[in-house]
Write a structure and sequence with these properties.
The complex is a heterodimer of chains A (619) and B (234).
Chain A: H1 3-28, H2 30-33, H3 44-56, H4 59-69, H5 76-100, H6 109-112, H7 119-138, H8 140-143, H9 150-158, H10 160-180, H11 198-225, H12 231-258, H13 270-291, H14 293-296, H15 299-321, H16 326-329, H17 337-360, H18 392-414, H19 417-420, E1 434-435, E2 438-441, E3 450-453, H20 454-460, E4 494-495, H21 499-503, H22 512-515, E5 550-551, H23 554-572, H24 592-597
Antiparallel strand pairs in A: 1-2, 2-3, 4-5
Helix pairs in contact in A: 1-17, 1-18, 3-5, 3-15, 3-17, 4-5, 4-10, 4-11, 5-7, 5-17, 7-10, 10-11, 11-12, 11-15, 12-13, 13-15
Chain B: H1 2-9, H2 11-41, H3 49-60, H4 71-90, H5 92-102, H6 111-134, H7 136-141, H8 144-165, H9 170-190, H10 198-201, H11 205-211, H12 219-226
Helix pairs in contact in B: 1-2, 1-9, 2-9, 3-11, 4-6, 6-8, 8-9
The chains are: A mainly alpha (619), B mainly alpha (234).
Chain lengths: 619, 234
């Protein structure tokens, strides 16, 4: 395998992982795949995919401005790759955004339901328009390959200049409006990053990053396809970039100095460390590297400098996008591996399309040299079986698809079961009711419960079925089991049978034939019922009939048990017409009984000792 | 044991099942694509489409071909294929697992049918091995994997039969269930990369066999170039 094929195999592998996770995200939602929360609703997918993605794609408008507007003819070879990168970058941003949006199918709403006061509205429109403009700017290149589309191509070529101007204008608008998004959070964003001219910071840094992405891309292409290096041209571009980076540095530091917060930089806090690292990597060191002519014309230092700016600026976007908000929100967010994989997958997909375009279309002055494009390359054979793998293109495809299949399967296997199988509602274990003759029923322990006069109810039901009016089931070896012993979850049903425990060798170790009769399908309907073995399971004469193997949610159990009886009594008892209404049990003000419940030495007659509320660590 | 069972039912199942499904899709698409490329390059593009379709269909349901050559072996082979396809897909115990996870199920086999088909599959697999070994011409053509495959395919059937129809204790049950699942997962992984891939490639075989003899018009010249003998007579 050569360098191109190794890289492609690796990219396909990541794409496979990302596809498995992506499908999971769209079927099971954000909760199953991300670590996002209400306090941190914008995570890696916004900080990296969108904020950084847009600025990484800035090379398109920067180079077209340089070439078409400022007439710097020497940068012509950079134009087509830069426009392609910009286009793919924007498509990647849109794809990345679809993963992050809770209701991605509503994305078209911004076209019809206008909210012109929102920076997001501006960003959305600009991204949409600019992606279209980039498509029109780039499409003459692939159309060149097909003679039958020559008329469309000529038509597009006529409008090239207005399209390019429009592209530059739209970029200027939304590169900055991504910064405007954060103007709304002066208390959330750390003061070293928050500024009234945040849009200008974003715009200037995007220009600098645009230059560096073009340089980086040229270096990578040179490394990957063994293309002739463009050291001189890169150095000339870097010379311009130094000025832009300088302006950015002055803006940032000057802005902080004007607002009198320079001291914060040297305060030694975590954010100060982030700031110093960011500024060093993204601005100060690259300016030094590219200011010294000897380093600027050195191939290796070009690598170092451009990588520094790219990583530094991405770091800046991540800082603004959320990393520096941690202190304000108090919510520590670490992206889950699935978020990271999807972000990497989106980038991999874009890079693969880029490589495809480079190989297929006339983007560079000369076509790249690599075996897949060469028709007379020697045949490839499978190393293990010696089988012929087909033409070079097919042999490569065999390898990429294999990488994709295996990585997809690995990704699919790694997705945690518990997150997929959750019912969407958080599982909240039920806490038993506290108290003696008067119980405080507060299953989820949020102190917003119901005071239940147990002693009173035993007296009321004396003439009916007694205890059995409510108590309908006992857990094995027990009598008068409490509600919470079966209805174990607040809002979701509980499996009270647990088949696998009964059949497992480590559990009850009961052979199948004990419950399932031989010669029949082993199914729930034909199996022996629970009370065939557990004799005291059901309370006799109880009007409540439990069937099935699932106990309903605690809240459902309470309401279906209490409400019908209360409604009935409300019509029967003339003095209590409100008995069937919600406030009959759910008091807005804590009633005297609950306060009494928490006191020792009560005057009430008590049969059981008072059980103090269990201590809970937080909240 | 419990943890091993959980692992093989959960992540390992998803891994192997995804490899099987995507792997089969992969070879199908790759084959079709290479065939398309060959067709596009071919100098002579006439293909006996009607004959190809008819032959593909008759070989998908080889009822007529059964008695032409080695009828007993053929009948067992067909029975084996039926059992192999029907039992795992329509077994009640399997369908209920899908139903628990996906929320919908498919019609299931009645108990007696499942019992009978399982026994039939086991018997016909054994008959196939014997038939292959006994016939001189076929044993001469056979590789090791041709003997091994019926045995590997039998493991889930035998262990499944033990678990489903014999009254074994929980410990034995769990052991055989583990073997059952692991063997099935081994089969899943092997399917796309071995001769069992014929389960999806079979419908293409007639088409590709016909296409294989259609060479591009300048094939002879290109072969010479590849062999570094440009300009020499073929």
């Amino acid at each position: 395998m050569n360098r191109v094929q190794t890289t492609k195999t690796f990219l396909w592998f990541i794409l496979g992982l990302a596809s498995a996770v992506g499908i999971t995200r769209f079927i099971f939602g954000l909760g199953a795949t991300t670590n996002l929360s209400d306090a941190t609703p914008w995570g890696l997918w916004i900080g990296f995919d969108v904020l950084s993605g847009v600025s990484l794609a800035a090379g398109g408008f920067v180079i077209t401005a340089l070439f078409y507007v400022m007439r710097r003819e020497e940068f012509h070879p950079f134009v087509k790759p830069a426009v392609l990168t910009a286009f793919l970058g924007y498509v990647a941003v849109v794809v990345g955004l679809l993963f992050d949006l809770g209701l991605p199918w509503n994305i078209w709403h911004m076209i019809i339901f206008w909210n012109p006061h929102s920076p997001l509205f501006e960003v959305g429109w600009c991204v949409m328009l600019y992606t279209t403009v980039l498509l029109l700017e780039f499409s003459p290149v692939p159309l060149e390959e097909f003679s039958r589309y020559a008329r469309i191509r000529n038509f597009l070529m006529k409008f090239r200049f207005p399209l390019i101007l429009l592209g530059i204008m739209l970029s200027t608008l939304h590169q900055s409006s991504l910064g405007s998004l954060f103007l709304i959070m002066p208390f959330k964003l750390h003061p070293l990053w928050y500024s009234n001219i945040l849009p200008i910071h974003f715009f200037v840094s995007a220009i600098a990053l645009g230059f560096m992405m073009v340089i980086f891309e040229s270096l990578v292409s040179h490394w990957l396809y063994l293309k002739d290096s463009e050291t001189d041209r890169i150095a000339r571009l870097a010379k311009i970039a130094v000025w832009v980076l300088g302006v950015y540095f002055v803006l940032r530091i000057g802005d902080i100095a004007l607002s009198g917060e320079l001291g914060l930089i040297f305060s030694g806090s975590w954010e100060a460390g982030l700031f110093i690292t960011e500024m060093l990597v993204s601005t100060i060191l690259p300016v030094i590297i590219f200011s010294i002519p000897k380093l600027r014309y050195n191939h290796r230092w070009q690598w170092v400098g451009s990588i520094m700016v790219v990583f530094g600026m991405v770091f800046n976007r991540i800082n603004v996008g959320g990393l520096t908000m941690i202190r304000a929100t108090g919510d520590i967010y670490l992206p889950s591996w699935m978020e990271i994989v999807v972000s990497m997958g989106v980038v991999s997909g874009a890079v693969l399309v880029f490589m495809f375009a480079i190989e297929k279309f006339h983007i560079w002055e000369e076509r790249p040299r690599h075996p897949e494009a060469y028709p007379f390359a020697p045949a490839a054979f499978d190393r293990a079986s010696g089988a012929w793998l087909g033409s070079p293109l097919m042999a490569a495809g065999t390898r990429y698809s294999l990488a994709f299949v295996f990585s997809f399967a690995i990704g699919f296997a790694l997705i945690p079961d518990t997150k997929i199988h959750s019912e969407g509602a958080e599982t909240i274990p039920v806490v038993r009711a506290r108290g003696g003759d008067t119980l405080f029923v507060d299953g989820n322990f949020n102190n917003y419960g119901v005071t239940f006069k147990h002693l009173l109810h035993t007296e009321i039901t004396k003439n009916e079925q007694g205890c059995a009016t409510c108590h309908h089931m006992n857990i094995p070896l027990d009598k008068n089991s409490g509600c919470w012993e079966c209805h174990k979850k607040m809002f979701t049903p509980t499996d009270i049978f647990n088949h696998d425990w009964h059949s497992s060798a480590a559990g009850a170790a009961i052979p199948c034939r004990v419950c399932h009769p031989a010669g029949q399908q082993r199914r729930m309907e034909t199996a022996k019922k629970c009370d065939a073995c557990h004799l005291d399971l059901f309370v006799q004469n109880s009007p409540v009939k439990a069937d099935g193997y699932m106990a309903v949610a605690y809240t459902d159990a309470m309401h279906t048990l209490c409400v019908p009886c209360h409604v009935k009594k409300a019509t029967e008892l003339a003095d209590k017409p409100d008995l069937g209404l919600c406030p009959a049990c759910h008091n807005i003000n804590p009633p005297q009984e609950r306060l009494e419940l928490l006191k020792y030495g009560r005057t009430e007659r008590s049969l059981k000792p008072v059980i103090l509320p269990p201590q809970k660590s937080s909240n | 044991m419990e943890q091993l069972l959980d692992f093989s039912k959960g992540p390992l199942f998803r891994l192997t099942f995804a490899i099987m499904v995507l792997g089969l899709a992969r070879i199908f698409v790759l084959d079709l694509y290479e065939a398309y490329r060959a067709y596009r390059r071919a100098g002579d593009k006439t293909l006996p489409w009607k004959q190809i379709t008819l032959r593909s269909l008759t070989w998908l349901f080889p009822v007529r071909q059964v008695f032409k050559n080695r009828p007993v072996y053929s009948v067992f082979s067909i029975l084996f294929h039926i059992g192999l396809l029907v039992v795992p897909v329509f077994l009640y115990a399997h369908v209920i697992l899908w139903k628990d996870d996906l929320g919908f199920g498919i019609p299931t086999l009645p108990y007696q049918w499942a019992y009978g088909l399982t026994v039939l599959t086991i018997v016909s697999a054994l008959a196939l091995i014997i038939g292959r070994a006994a016939s001189r011409s076929s044993s001469f053509l056979s590789r090791k994997q041709d003997y091994l495959w019926p045995v590997v395919l039998l493991i889930p059937f035998v262990t499944g039969f033990i678990c489903a129809h014999l009254g074994v204790g929980p410990r034995t049950y769990q052991f055989f269930m583990l073997v059952h699942i692991l063997a099935a997962e081994l089969i899943f992984v092997l399917i796309p990369f071995t001769k069992i891939a014929h389960c999806v490639l079979m419908p293409l075989s007639q088409f590709i066999a016909n296409l294989a003899w259609k060479f591009p018009p300048d094939t002879d010249e290109k072969i010479c170039i590849t062999l570094n003998k440009k300009g020499e007579p073929v």
